[in-house]
Input
Amino acid sequence: KSFMAGTGLSQRYSVDVSTFTPELRETCHFGEIHDVKFPQKSSEIFVTASEQDIRVWSAVYNTELLRINVPNLTCYAIDITPSGGSIVSAWSDGKIRSFFPESGKLQFMIPDAHNDAVSSLAINNRDGGNESLWHL
Output
């Protein structure tokens, strides 16, 4: 036998009554979702931006695949490079961060992209292979 338990951070667990062992069943963002992006030519996964994290989701299995935590900050915008090799993100501290989509490790950071929060970004691929980031 088991019972379901939920947390204030939007985690839902199934807890085995005999061993009191929790098993994570579902997750979701605990704050607002500010942006959602699908990679080019794929509807099987998508990426969301929210309070303190970016998450990569499986649309096929309805599960979280990866969570990229940046504590005490809010991610306002995300984009995925056409090659799929980077998740580029705009943050409340005025920085733009890029992460590897498989591991969530930081790829690069632009420290002074804005003197306040960065609220939007777009990736341009006009040259057929060169990826550019434009700040307007």
